[in-house]
Amino acid sequence: MNHSKKSVEIKHIDFLEILLEKRELYPFYEKVVNTISQKTIYNKENNGAQAETYNTIYFINDVPNYLNAEIPTANKKIKSSKVLRYEGFIINLKKYKDIGEYLNSNFSSKSRSKFRTYQKRLEMCFNIKYKMYCGDISKEHYNYLFDEFREILKRRFQQKQAVNEDLKRWDYYHKLAYPMILEKKASLFVIYDREKPINICLNFIYDKIIFGYIRTFDIDYSKFNIGFIDMIEQVNWCLQNDIEIFDLLKGDFDYKRRWADSIYNYETHIIYNPQFFNTKKAAVIKTFKIKKYYQLLHLFKKWNLHLLYRKFKIYKYNKSKSEDNDRPGAQIVIDNKPDIPLDEKLLPVNLDNPEYVFLKKPVYDFLYSCSEPLSSICISKFNSNYNSYLIEGKKSIQKITINNT
What we know:
By secondary structure, the protein is an alpha+beta fold. The chain is 35% helix and 30% strand.
């Protein structure tokens, strides 16, 4: 058969997806070396398997360049080239003996003081506990956590006015992660308020590297900056459990630049058989185009044009959702010195009642500002104005009026 006359096929493969989720790599790769620890973390099994390359170009995307994925050069039927893409972020935990040393090395005393304030206030206002599930969790509780995980992730991205791609694969992740947690190949980190999860992170673990795959928090607690608390607790767990690298993965977000102590680059590996003209020609052209695309992308970031793109995505999201809002928007008016008539009748409100779920964020904001525990406050509804509510603490009082627009 004359392979050179056949059309060229393109295959796109996510390196981390197959390494972390499937625990295998395409047989082009003989081994993977962690260049930070100088340890071989993957060796190809000698099973004789080979990937077909005569009319196929493989684009192996999102290869962290601190993981040296070796392709044997002696095989003349395989040629590869590498293209630098965007940045990734890691914490090299081998540098630190404990969480105190990590925080002292990477944050100012002012920042460290803020972190302590956030955590102390969260723990004072609520009944907080932290749990890393890695090796043991019941299927019933796992299912409960994953359902809650999805709901708070949806709410978070509605707030951000963005589409979350992980939600499209949610059923797949739900099925995948449970056995991997039992085998210590994945973990779920959870912050609870009583029995309710308010922060959840799904991580995958390979050798002594933990990869922060999906993380989110309950936006009702946003005043407490629980994303910072989450990072402190997770880094502490990693240091106590012999994890050497915390990989925060791709996505240029402020929190990653703040917490990471090292930046690496992702690569795309383009693999093809150079003995077939059409394949070689197509591979060279596509490699050139990808290189130019990422060179242009780096310039855009240098000029901050990517920020305009983010605003455009928010505009598109708002436009697509404008016709299916569940309820009209609401404006919250706060009065810290309310004048309450003597004859006003106040009706008690139970915050756990789903009917009053919209009150949680303003109430929790009040707790943060006034440094009072939830157990010490009373919430009431004005009989004369069904849109107004009163929060009474030991030291402070606040009237909240919800104006629907």
